[in-house]
Amino acid sequence: MPTIDPAMLWIVLGLLLAIAEIALPGIFLIWLGFAALLTGLATLVTGMALAAQLGTFAVAALATVQAGRSVIKRHPSQSADPLLNDRLARLVGEQVVVVEAIEDGVGRVRVGDGVWAACGPDTPAGTRMHVIGHDQGRLVVARSG
């Protein structure tokens, strides 16, 4: 029965992890793939035992993941739509209609086909306003003018 070179196993594992990163993007598997490749190269050069290989992989994994975190922190990705997951922020600037009078600074406004909690100056129902911000899950509104 043929034996498989441990260095090649590490290199193949590294390549599989890199491919998995492409298929399942998450910016994590690639760093483990680098660690496996480094372990494979070190094993190829030194012929180290399994225990040393596992230790090398563990240290390399910690180092590459930390390096990856550092790179990502220094170079954050820019989104084409930075407010994509911030529904309240996306509503800033929208025109709204008060549907429940704003009394003591709190009321409800209609935005499109939905009704949202709002805070702002006391205003009777039916008044047109616009969203100027958001606070604790409520839209902050001001009189249109």
UniProtKB/TrEMBL annotation:
Q: Which Gene3D superfamilies match?
A: Nucleic acid-binding proteins (2.40.50.140)
What are the TM regions of this chain, as residue ranges? Answer: 7-34, 40-65
Domain NfeD-like C-terminal per the UniProt entry, residue ranges: 90-142
Identify its membrane topology class. Multi-pass membrane protein
Subcellular location as annotated: Membrane
Kindly state which keywords UniProt assigns to this record, in alphabetical order: Membrane, Transmembrane, Transmembrane helix
A Pfam family per the record: NfeD
Major subcellular location class: membrane
Q: Is the Transmembrane keyword given for this protein?
A: yes
Q: Which InterPro entries match?
A: Membrane_assoc_protease, NA-bd_OB-fold, NfeD-like_C
Question: What PANTHER family would the database entry show?
Answer: INNER MEMBRANE PROTEIN YBBJ
* Name under which the protein is recorded: NfeD family protein
* Biological source species: Sphingomonas arantia
